[in-house]
Amino acid sequence: MLSVKKLNIKINNQNVVKDLTYDFSVKEGGLFVLLGPNGCGKSTLFKAIMGFSGYEVSGDILLNGKRINDLSIDQRVKLGLAYMYQHPPVIKGVKVKDMLEEKDLDDDFWDKYSKNVDELDASKFYSRYVNDGLSGGEIKRSELLTLTMLENSKLFLFDEPDSGVDLDNLKNIGKYINNIVKESKSIGIIITHTGDVLKYLDVQKAAIMYDGKIVCEGDPEKLINCIKKSGYHECVNCKDLEK
Predict the structure, then answer these.
(1) How many alpha carbons lie under 13 Å from residue 160 in its C-beta half-sphere?
(2) Could you write out the DSSP letters of every residue in 174-217?
(3) Is this structure's pTM higher than 0.85?
(4) Can you say how many angstroms the Cα of residue 124 is from the centroid of all Cα atoms in its chain?
């Protein structure tokens, strides 16, 4: 579903993603995890895929074989892209429930949405301003809740859903991500540098990004065990891993 060809991404004339050609697709209802240390280009890649400003992009970003480089963020969302921020913006004056009341949705959606509120234990911040004064776990749950509002999403980009989240919420978030992807018959790509959330996810495939490139791929458990044992630098040079 998602692939890139000879993709280069620059920020302030610095080449962050370097001549990247890769297919991130997995089976419908499945998850792909992109591992890598801080600053290796993972979030930059996601933001360029979504079409955020401030990035100089060359090469091809392909969604279902269609080049989307020249499309606006809105157009990409309509094609099925959905993005979960690593550091979402604070929106003072707008409550989570306000965003829902702006949408003309049928009873079936509201029934499903009420279930999602319960699953994410979101009633605690449902009437608070978006991401204002919330804990790390609450912010992540709020982000996941608003993603549910997007209709016909086929590719979810989850940028570090495990950062700043305690163990109880981590399990809840992992379970919820699995359900989103499976119920919508979509796919999800998850960025993480710690891998903490992986124990709660059904991940089909993993790859490691290092210095702006995909340096190896393979079984998620095998890769994360190598990283935890030896660190990223040693892991990407390990001859036992699939290159």
Answers:
(1) 20
(2) HHHHHHHHHHTT-EEEEEESS-GGGGGS-EEEEEEEETTEEEEE
(3) yes
(4) 24
Closest listed residue to residue 180, CA positions, set 86, 113, 93, 87: 113
CATH of 2-87+152-235, one of 3.40.50.300, 3.30.420.40, 2.30.30.30, 3.40.50.970: 3.40.50.300
pLDDT tens for 160-200 read 998 878 887 888 889 889 988 998 899 999 998 778 888 88
The terminus-to-terminus CA distance of the chain in angstroms comes to 22
Q: Inter-axis angle of helices 167-183 and 107-119, to 10 degrees?
A: 150
Using the predicted structure, report yes or no on whether residue 28 has a pLDDT greater than 60: yes
pLDDT digits (tens, 9 = 90+) for 95-124: 767 766 665 555 666 666 667 777 777 777
SS3 232: helix
Task: Identify the burial level of 48 via C-beta atoms within 10 angstroms of its C-beta, where 0-12 means exposed, 13-18 middle and 19 or more buried.
Answer: buried
